[in-house]
Design brief:
230 residues, mainly alpha, MetI-like fold, flat, transmembrane transporter activity, transport, cell membrane
Length: 230
Amino acid sequence: MTPDFIAQTFARLISALPVTLEVWFLSIFFGGIIAVGVTWMRASRSTALAAVARGYIFVFRGSPLLIQLFVIYYGLPSLPFVRHSFLWPFLRDAFFCAVLSLALCTAAYTSEIFRGALAAVPRDQVEAARACGMSGFLLLRRIILPIAMRQALPAYATEVISMTKATALVSLVTLWDMMNVALKIRNDTLVTYTPLIIAGAIYFVLNLIIARFFAWLERRVSPHLRPRGH
C-alpha cells in the first residue's frame, strides 16, 4: 500500500460519489413525500386508510431493507404480468429499484417520526390559538407545524444519517455507487482493507456534514438553543 495507491483509490471513490448522493437525495425526497401521505392516512378518521397505513409501516419497519431491495429488484421483474406492464421499463432499471426500495423504507420510519411529532404538540397551545381566532391552515402553519418540526428534527436527522449508510446496499443490485467501486478495487488489487477504510471515511465525513447541518437547523427553529446574544 503506497501513497499513490491511496490517492488513486480515493479519486476513484470520489468519482462514484455523485451516484451515492443522487440515490440518497432522491430516496430522502420521495420518502418524505410518501411519509406525509402515510402520516395523513394514519391520522385519518377512515378505518380502512388507517389500517393500510399501519400495515405499510409494520411491513417496511419489520423487514430488513436488504430483503426489500432484493424483492423489488429481483423478485418483481420475475413476475410475468410485471414484464408485460407499464412498470417493466422502470423495474428493470437498477437505479430506479434502488431509489424505490430506499424511499419506501425510509417513508415508513419517517411517517412514525412525523406522527410522534404531531402528537407531541401541546393541546393547550392549540386550544389557546383557537381561542385567539386561529383555525384551519393558519393554525397549522403558525402553531402546529413549527412545534412539530422542532420535535421531529432530532429523530429525523438520525433517519437521514441512517439512509446515508443504507445507500451502501445498492451496490448489491449492480449499481456503481461508491461502495461497489470500493469492492471492485478490493477484488482487483487484493488489498482488503484500504478501499473499505477510505470509503468508510468518506461516509463518515458525509454524515458529519449532515449532523452539523441538522444541528444548525435545530438551533434556527429552537430559539432556546441559540447562544445568548444571538
